[in-house]
Amino acid sequence: MVGGSARAIHDGIAAGRVSAVEVCRAFLERIEAVNPALNAFNLVAADRALARAGEIDRRRAAGESTGPLAGVPVAIKDNLCVRGMRTTASSRILDRFIPPYDATAVQRLEAAGAVIVGKTNCDEFAMGSSNENSAYGPVRNPWAADRTPGGSSGGSAAAVAARCAPLALGSDTGGSIRQPASFCGVVGLKPTYGRVSRYGLLAFASSLDQIGPIGTTASDAALALSVLAGPDPADATSSRQPVPDFMAALTGDVEGLRIGVPRAFVTEGVDEDVRQAFDEALDTLRRAGATLVDIDLPHATYATPVYYLVATAEASSNLARYDGVRYGHRSRADGNQGLKEMYSRTRDEGFGAEVKRRIMLGTYVLSAGYYDAFYLKAQQVRTLLRQDYDAAFEKADVVAMPTSPTPPFRLGEKTDDPLQMYLADVFTVSANLVGLPAISVPCGFAERSERLPVGLQLTGRLFDESTLLKLSDAYERLTDWHTQRPT
Ligand code: GLN
Fold this sequence. Notes:
Amidase signature (AS) enzymes
C-alpha cells in the first residue's frame, strides 16, 4: 500500500477501495519500521494523523466533497509552522516552539484533505547541503546508509524515497528541495519565487526562499503545486499571476520544445557518472522530439559566491529575532548579568556552528565599509545572471543541468570544509537568485553497483512550471528511473 503515488492513493480512497485510516496506518507502520535507521522525522504525529484520516473517511461516507489530496499522507519540513505541532527548524533555539498558527502551504494542503504524518528533519534553519547541520542528528540516505540524503530538506526527501509518505513539503533557498530529491532518487520542484506563499515558513533568506513539493512523480508534483499555488494576503511577495492547470500540461508531448544546455558551465568538477546520466537523459528527450540548443550562462560561475553573500546577509537579519525574549530557548545561566548577556548566551547556546558562521558572514558583508564591496556587488552580479537567463530563454524553453555535480557524498565527507560543502550547490543556486522555477527528476544511478541516484535539473521561465512538469512527466513515460526503490 505504501508504494503508490499520491494520486493513486487519493483515487483508491475516493473509489472506496481502501479507507484513509487504513492508508494512514500503513504509512505510520512504515515510519515506525524505517525511521529509527533513517532519522528522517523530528516528530511523528500519529494520533493527530489517524484522527484526521478518520475525519476524511466520515466526510466521504457522508457524501461530502473531500478535496484533491483527500487521505494522502504528507510529511512537512520542520521549518514550516503547523499549529499546535512542535516546529524547530532542527535548531536548539526553537526546541520548545509550538506555533499558534499554520503556514499557508500547510493550511492549503490540509484544506485539500492531506493528512500530516509528521515533521521532517532538516539542516538547522535550512542552512546546509547534507542534513548534517541538524541539532537532531543527520538523516541517512535510504539508498546507502553511509551517505547523506542531501539538504537541507533531507528528511523530506528521505521520507518520500523510503515510502514513509508519498508526498512531502520542502523549502528551497539555494537547492534544498532539488538536491535532496536528486540524492534520494525522487522528484523535487522549486516553484517560481512568489508562486507559493511563504507565510509560516521560518525565514532563512527572504528574497530566495520558496516552498515546494517532493514526491515520486512529476504528476504528483503538479497535483501538489495546484493545491499550494496562488496569492495570499498574508505574504505580500506571493504572486497574483494566474495559476494554470498544471495537470493539463502533462500531455507527454515534447515535440519542438527547446532544451538549452550550458555546456561550458557543466564541465569542471562534474562526476563522470553524473555527466553520463545527464547526457543520456538529454538524448532520451531529444529522441522524443525535443531540440537541444547550446546556451551560455557567462555569469553562472559567480552564482555560488553571490548566493553565499546574499543568503548570509539576509539570514543574519532574519535570525536576529531569536533573542530568547519572545519565544524559543532562553539562557538561564546563573552568570547572566543583564539583557545583553542573556541575548548573547541564548544565541550561543541555541545556534549551531554553521548558523553562527552564516550570521557572522552576513553581518560582515552588510557592515559599513564592506556593504558596497560585497553585498551591493553581489546584487549587481545577480542582475547580470538574470540577463544571462533572459538571453538563454530567447533560444530555449528550459535550461538543463545536473542537479548536483556529484552523487550523494559520504556523511562526514565535507563537514570539516564549509567551502567544499558550498560548492555542492553550484548548479542549484542560480534559479533562486533569479527567482526561476526548477525541478529535479531521477535520471539514473552513479556507481551503478552501489545505486546512488542522479538527478536531472530543468529550469524554466518565470511562472512556467508547466513546461518543467510537462518535460519531466514525458521523461518519466520514457524511462523507469523514478519507479526504482531503495531496498
Ligand atoms: N545548501 C544551500 C545552503 O546551505 C541551500 C540551502 C537551502 O536551499 N535552504 O544555503
